[in-house]
Amino acid sequence: MNDQLPEDLICWQQLERTASDVFRLFGYQEIRLPVVEKTELFARSIGQATDIVEKEMYTFQDRNGDQLSLRPEATAGVVRAMLQHGLLHNAIQRVWYTGPMFRHERPQKGRYRQFHQIGVEAYGMAEADLDVEIISLTWQLWKQLGLTETTLELNTLGTANSRQQYRAALVDYYQSHKESLDADTLHRLEKNPLRILDSKNDAIIELNRNAPDILDYLDDESREHFQRVQQLLDKLGISYVRNPKLVRGLDYYSRTVFEWTTDKLGAQSAICGGGRYDNLVEKLGGKPVPAAGFAIGMERLIELMKIEQLCQPVKRQDVYLVQTSATALELGSTLAMELRDAGFSVTANVGDASFKSQLKKANRCNARLALIIGDDELQTSTISVKKLDDGEQFSVSRDNLLAEASKYLAITE
Ligand code: HAM
Fold first, then answer.
1. How far apart are the first and last CA of the chain?
2. Structure pTM?
3. Residues flanking ligand 1, CB < 6 Å
4. Which CATH number do you get for residue 350?
C-alpha cells in the first residue's frame, strides 16, 4: 500500500481531470460508492473460484458479526447500488467512478495491495455498439493523454451456454495431458478451467498453444455480436489483436472481453481490463439487464505516462510574500487576497523569520516572484518585486502592484 506524495499527485490529477473530461464527452456521470461491501456480494459476482475471492480479499467481521470485505474492484458495488436505488428500471445508465481497491496479492512493481482504478459501467444496452463505445472511450482517453504504447487485446467468452461446452472441451483437452500439469493448474482444472489459459507457467503456456478455441463453440448470436464489434472497431480505425487466451480473472463476463496492454511495464502489462457482463444484474437479484464496463489501473497508467514523458511539469507558485513585521503582515494579507482574487497563487510567509530566510523559502517553493514588504516599503507605500529566476529587483507603488505583477506573471507563464 503506497503513500501518494504531493509531487506524485500532479500526474494523478492530470489523469483524473483528463479522464473525467472524456467521460463527460461520452455522457457518463460520476458515481461514488463505499469501499466496504458484504463479502457475499463479491463471492456471488466475481466468483467463488477466482483468485480474487479465494485468496486476495481483505475480509473481516464487524461488530454485528457481518462478513465484510474491502472492495477488490468496483463493478459489483456499482450493480449493488444501481439495484438498491432502483436505477435500472427501463433505464439506460452510464456511470464512471474512481477510487482505491484492495487485493492481497504478492506485491511487485505495478502490483499493489491498495491500488486505484478509474472506470465506467453502462447498463441497458445489449448491442455491440456499446462494447465499441466503451472501447473507443478508452481510445479517446489515450489520445487525449498522448499515449502511444498500447495494444488492444480482444476476445469473446460467448454466452453461459456456449462457455459450458467450451469448458467441457478444455477439461477433455487438459485431462488428456494430465501428467504435465502442475498443482496450480490441476486446481484450476477442477475449479475454473478457463483460467488455465492465462497461466504464467512456461510448460502450460506451451500446452495452451493447441488448446481448443472458444470461437469454435460460440452460438450464432455471440458470433455475430463479436463480428459486429470487430467491424465497428475497424470503421473507427481502432486496431486490435484477437487474443484467444484472454479470459479475464473475474467470472461475471459474457461475450466481449478486452484488455489494453503495453510492453513498457514488464510483467504487469495490463493497464485496463473490461468487457460485457449481461448476467450479473440478474445474478445479484435484479431483472436481466445487459451491461458492460472497464477499469483502468491508475498506478500502471501513470507509470506509462511517466515513461512516455506525458506528465505535465509541476505548476510553479506565482508569488511568495515576504513580510518582515506585524504591520507588513497586515498589508501583506490584503495584497495576498487581491492577488488570489485575480487568480494568482500566493504563498505568504507565516511566522517570524529574517528577510534572508524568507527569501530562501521563496526560492524553495519555486515561486516566480517574491513580493517584499519591509519597513522601507511601508514608509514609501511601495512594494519591492524580486524576480526569482534572475534576481532582478525593482520597486512599484502599492496601487500599481496588481497591474505590474500581472504583466510579469502573464509573460513568464
Ligand atoms: P481487473 O482486470 O481485475 O478488472 O482490473 C482492472 C485493472 O486494474 C487491471 O488491468 C490493472 O491495470 C489494475 N489492477 C488490478 N489489480 C491490480 C493491483 N493489484 N495493483 C495495481 N493495479 C491493479 C476489474 O477490476 C473489473 N472490475 C473491470 C471491469 C469493469 N469490468 C467491467 N467493468
1. 37
2. 0.94
3. 73-75, 103, 105, 111-112, 115, 117, 119, 121, 249-250, 270-275, 277, 293-295, 297, 299-300
4. 3.40.50.800
